[in-house]
Fold:
Amino acid sequence: MLRAAGDDDYNAYVNGLCRLNSVATLIIPNREGAENPAVAEIIRRAEAVFIAGGDQAHYVRAWQHTAVEEALNKEIASGRPIGGTSAGLAVLGEFVYGALNDPPDGMLASPEALKDPFTLQVTLVRDFLVIPMLHDTITDSHFAKRDRLGRSLVFLARLMQDGWSRTPHEIAVDERSAVLVESDGKATVTGFGKGAYFIRPAQSPAVCQKGVPLTLVQISTYKAPTGSHFDLSSWTGEGGASYTLSVKDGTVHSTQTGGALY
Structure:
């Protein structure tokens, strides 16, 4: 277990889930700790790595371009499992919402982002971790519970507008839900929340500029409840439902029954 702050209270919980030789938590709060060779060596010896929640800005600021990041990417390249919850989930994709300019009392809200896709709180980071199946992908958590759809669509629009990706994807996971991805890209959705959402725009934004509400249409969306499956390689699902989203002048619209967004 890796985290930037907190304690080892996850250890007993993980031990209760399955039989393991050992469970340990490393708290790496700064770049000095992230450059410690002993810390990197512990990560390299791990059978699996899980990144805890908190504030992903701490992970980006303290761990990116350090020995810890290098050790994590070597673990991934060797086929070792990696996962995360909340902020730990948010840093798994090729693209990351860095939360670098968020105030202490809260994170970027959807209405603010949709109103101005270039607000200073829209801070995107790339190449923190290199997970092949999450290439061209941004991940987010607490999705429906915290109404993060609008800001997620802004992130996708910015990735295209800024030239980072022509075909970005998003995997958005709700609270109390998880997406378990195998090495071949086949995923299973589990948990007790609303599940996961797999989102992909079909075209570049019509309007994505500073101080102007976003317009982005033809956004393919797949809602995957618990027990459903999704193939990241073909970007197709089984057991869920497909619908289309659009954003016009900063307002999100849906083809789901009743215009439901989630």
Notes: Residues 133 and 183 are 8 Å apart (CA to CA). The helical segments are 10-17, 31-34, 37-45, 56-63, 67-77, 87-90, 110-115, 149-161. The longest strand covers residues 216-224.
